[in-house]
Every structure is written in C-alpha cells, then in structure tokens.
C-alpha cells in the first residue's frame, strides 16, 4: 500500500527534477521516459504539486440537489465530503475528524445536517463547522474554538454547467480562467438546454493496475488505437462502419492548460442521421442553440466533440452506441475521473448523464448504450483497461529501467488549420500526438512548480 511522504529538498527532490528534465528533453525528441508511469517519488510529487494545487472535478450538482445532500469523493489521495449546506452552498470537506483523524462520514452518499465521528463523538455541521463533543464540561476546561476545530474546507469550490470542481490552493485562477477557451467547448457540449444535464446513476468504480495518466492522456487525443484495440467492437453491432476508418474521421481541438478534445465527422462516418451526435430530430429540435456562435453550431452538427480531457484527470465521452440489435444507436454522455491510488495503480470512476429534458425512455436507452460500451464490463472499456497496464508494467521492469527505455512519440508533425475561426487550435487529423504532448507539457509545468499552479499555456 502506498504511503505518503513529502517530497522535500534533498535527494528525492533532485531526482524528481532530473526526471522532469528527461521528460522535457524526451518530448523535444518525440520520446517519453518510463518513470512517470510507475515511480514512488514521481507519484508523491504529483500528489503535492498537481492534486493540491489544481482544479479537480468532484461531483455534479444533480447528485446533491437538496440541502443536506452529500457524496464522498477524492482529491488525489484525500477523501472529501461534497455537501450542500443549509444555505445552499456546496462545501468540500476533508473526511478526517480534527480530534484523532477518524473518518466522520462512512456512507458514499446521503442526506444529513450533521457528521458525527464514530470514535469519540465529535460533531460537525454539514458545512464542516464544529458543533460539540460528548461530556464537554467534564472533558475540557473550555469549549474548542469552532473557528479553529472544524473540518478542513477546500478554499475554492466552483461549478460550471453543473460540474463541481474543487481546489486545495487559494492563490489560483478561477475555474473559468483555468478552463480558459476550453469553456467554449464546454458550452457546445453541455450547454445545449437551460435545464442542463442530470446524473443517471451513482458513479461506477473499479481498480486498474495502470497509471492515472494513461487514461487521461489517452482521452486527451489518442484515436490512433481505435482501429486496433477496438476492432472487435465491429462484430458486436457497433453503429456504422469499420472502426479502422476512425483515423480519417477524427479531428483535434487543442486548448491551453493541457485541455483537449477529439471530434468525429460522424455523419460522414455513419450516415446523415448522426449529425449532432445522432440525437433524433425531435429531440435536437428542443436544444437551445441561440447562445452558441457560428463555429460552435458548425462543429456540433458536423464534427461533434466525442472525447476529451480537462487536465489533470477529468475526461468526457459522448458517442452513439447500440441498445438493442437492429435499433438505431443512441447517444450517451459519460464523464470519468482517473483517480490515483498508488504508483502504477488507479481507480476509474465514471458517471453517465443525459439532458434533463430528455424523456425517461430516452434516458434509459442512453444509459444502456453507455453501459454496453463503457460500463464496468463494457465492450470498449474492457479493451482499454487491460491495455493501459502496459506503461506501468514497463516502468516496473528492471530490464527496461536499466536500458533507460523511452516510449515512441514520433508521429509526423501536424500543423493546425490556419482557417480555424474558433478559440484554441483546430487540426484536420488527430495523428501527430500533439494533444498528448500538450498534456505532458502541462504536467511538467506543475511538477516543476514550487508555488501554486498558474496554468501556463500550451498550444
């Protein structure tokens, strides 16, 4: 089991700097050292320098709609309670009692006005404020100061389109500034109806012996693997043609701060019914599109974003999937977190959502389609889960480490489309590994930072 230890100045800090230098040199040469995929020191540095300083997705507002609602989540290795207080505000609380550190919340979700520690009975409001303890007058000369002894609270909690993010550092840009021009893509994906989206079920969770960055990097821009890794999906009634055509249909959207998305020309790939991700005309007619600009309208019709990553570990997927043999494919929306557990091990959390206005039967079909492809036993998820173990296994290999093996990141150079009218950069192909490179360069910025992450730009 992983044990946390601060990366202080000394041999370990020097080692982390050396690895970062090798990563930068490797990226410049189209190569990637294996250490970041399985290394105790690198993992400890990530927990300090990325997950305590960066905006991390935690929950969707439809999971805690009422006062007193809460869910348990994580920021890096820290267990947190995401609760809605009596004032309607969302709080993110460290789930460790201030008395002896015992978790005060043992349920994944629920509704309560108080959290009571099962060890000595200290009690906290659902906003984290200390309320009291048993035998107060006998046990203490004076009451513990509620301002000092409440549960630790994340200093920054913000949401966009119902997606709640938290940050453990105060001196950081706002969530909207952190998303930057990727917020433009959020609007095009999630802002299509004033009622927003709703979570269809609690998140599914399962553990992979893979590094958290393998999933995040894959969703940031890797469509190259689809024709090989997911070829078997063709025989399982996936919509449209051979997945090996994916490379010709994929386009890249690269934004600052390590955020990126893939879009697919679905109507060209699967047929004209797959404009707007394949939503039926009677449902897409209810979309409220007046706030979108011409470029957003063009992409959701012709190159709808199908996959993407918000650095560090939040990813998105919307794709048409089968529900029953012979029936038209149904678009589903999946969001996921690549949760670090220990070096080379992650827990994958994923939620399925649909637009709140959608009829119940449509939401049911959407959930089935998502489960069929990307549930715990989904056709496509099963492919990826085993394949992502490769980088961590290589990084654990004494032979590979001794040989200083580096992975190949040398696809041909691709230039962005000069006629693009939207924010960020648009590419006519996802070959080139430019989005994966941007993800790693953002990782480098945070890993080298001695202060709060300010989100350097990488186009």
Quick structural gist:
It is built from 16 helices and 21 strands.
Task: Note the overall shape.
Answer: globular
Number of helices: 16
Relevant CATH superfamily of the largest domain: Naphthalene 1,2-dioxygenase Alpha Subunit, Chain A, domain 1
Strand content: 15-25%
Report the biggest beta sheet as strand number plus sense, adding barrel if it closes: 9 strands, antiparallel
Mean pLDDT: 92
Protein name: Rieske 2Fe-2S domain-containing protein
GO molecular function: 2 iron, 2 sulfur cluster binding; dioxygenase activity; iron ion binding
Organism: Rhizorhabdus wittichii
Family: Belongs to the bacterial ring-hydroxylating dioxygenase alpha subunit family.
What does this structure look like?
There is one protein chain. This protein is α+β, with helices and mostly antiparallel strands and 459 residues long. The protein has two domains: 56-171, Rieske Iron-sulfur Protein (3-layer Sandwich), CATH 2.102.10; 176-446, Naphthalene 1,2-dioxygenase Alpha Subunit, Chain A, domain 1, CATH 3.90.380. Helix 1 runs antiparallel to helix 16 and helix 6 (212-221) crosses helix 16 (434-447). A hairpin with a 5-residue loop joins strand 14 and strand 15 (260-264). Helix content is 29%, strand content 24%. Residues 451-459 have low confidence and may be disordered. It contains 16 helices and 21 strands.
List the helices and strands and how they pair.
Elements: H1 11-29, E1 31-33, H2 40-49, E2 56-60, E3 69-75, E4 78-84, E5 90-94, E6 109-111, E7 114-116, E8 123-125, E9 130-132, H3 136-139, E10 156-160, E11 163-167, H4 175-179, H5 182-190, E12 197-199, E13 204-208, H6 212-221, H7 226-229, H8 246-249, E14 250-254, E15 260-264, H9 266-270, H10 281-284, H11 294-302, E16 305-310, E17 314-321, E18 330-342, E19 345-355, H12 360-374, H13 379-387, H14 389-396, H15 398-402, E20 406-408, E21 425-427, H16 434-447
Antiparallel strand pairs: 1-20, 2-11, 3-4, 3-6, 4-5, 7-8, 8-9, 10-11, 12-19, 13-19, 14-15, 14-21, 15-16, 16-17, 17-18, 18-19
Helix pairs in contact: 1-16, 6-16
């Amino acid at each position: 089991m992983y044990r946390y230890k601060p990366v202080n100045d000394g041999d370990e800090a020097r080692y982390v700097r050396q690895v970062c230098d090798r990563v930068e040199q490797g990226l410049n040469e189209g190569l990637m050292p294996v250490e970041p995929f399985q290394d105790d020191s690198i993992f400890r540095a990530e927990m300090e320098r990325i997950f305590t300083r960066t905006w991390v997705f935690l929950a969707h507002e439809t999971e805690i709609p009422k006062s007193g609602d809460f869910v348990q989540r994580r920021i890096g290795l820290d267990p947190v309670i995401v609760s809605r207080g009596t004032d309607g505000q969302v709080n993110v609380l460290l789930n460790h009692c201030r008395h002896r550190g015992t978790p005060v919340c043992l349920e994944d979700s629920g509704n309560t006005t108080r959290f009571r520690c099962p060890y000595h009975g200290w009690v906290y409001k659902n906003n984290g404020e200390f309320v009291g303890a048993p035998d107060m007058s006998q046990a203490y000369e004076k009451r513990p100061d509620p301002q000092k002894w409440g549960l630790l609270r994340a200093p920054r909690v913000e949401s966009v389109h119902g997606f709640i993010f938290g940050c453990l550092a105060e001196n950081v840009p706002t969530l909207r500034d952190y998303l930057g021009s990727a917020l433009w893509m959020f609007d095009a994906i999630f802002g299509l109806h004033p009622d927003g989206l709703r979570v269809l079920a609690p998140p599914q969770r399962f553990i992979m012996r893979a590094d958290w960055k393998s999933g995040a990097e894959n969703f940031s821009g890797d469509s190259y693997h689809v024709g090989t890794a997911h070829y078997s999906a063709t025989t399982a009634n996936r919509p449209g043609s051979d997945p090996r055509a994916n490379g010709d249909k994929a386009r890249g959207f690269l934004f600052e701060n390590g955020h990126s998305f893939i879009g697919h020309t679905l109507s060209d790939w699967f047929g004209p019914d797959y404009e707007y991700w394949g939503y039926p005309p009677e449902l897409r007619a209810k979309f409220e599109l007046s706030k979108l600009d011409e470029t957003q309208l063009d992409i959701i019709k012709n190159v709808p974003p199908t996959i993407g990553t918000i650095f560090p570990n939040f990813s998105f997927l919307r794709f048409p999937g089968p529900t029953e043999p012979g029936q038209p494919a149904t678009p589903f929306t999946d969001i996921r977190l690549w949760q670090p557990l220990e070096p080379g091990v992650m827990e994958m959390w994923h939620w399925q959502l649909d637009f709140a206005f959608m009829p119940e039967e449509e939401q049911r079909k959407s959930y089935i389609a998502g489960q069929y492809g990307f549930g715990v036993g989904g056709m496509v998820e099963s492919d990826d889960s085993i394949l992502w173990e490769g980088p961590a296994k290589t990084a654990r290999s004494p032979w590979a480490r001794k040989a200083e093996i580096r992975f190949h990141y040398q696809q041909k150079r691709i230039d962005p489309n000069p006629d693009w009218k939207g924010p960020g950069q648009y590419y006519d192909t996802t070959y080139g590994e430019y989005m994966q490179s941007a993800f790693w360069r953002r990782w480098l910025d945070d890993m080298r930072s001695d202060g709060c992450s300010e989100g350097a730009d990488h186009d």
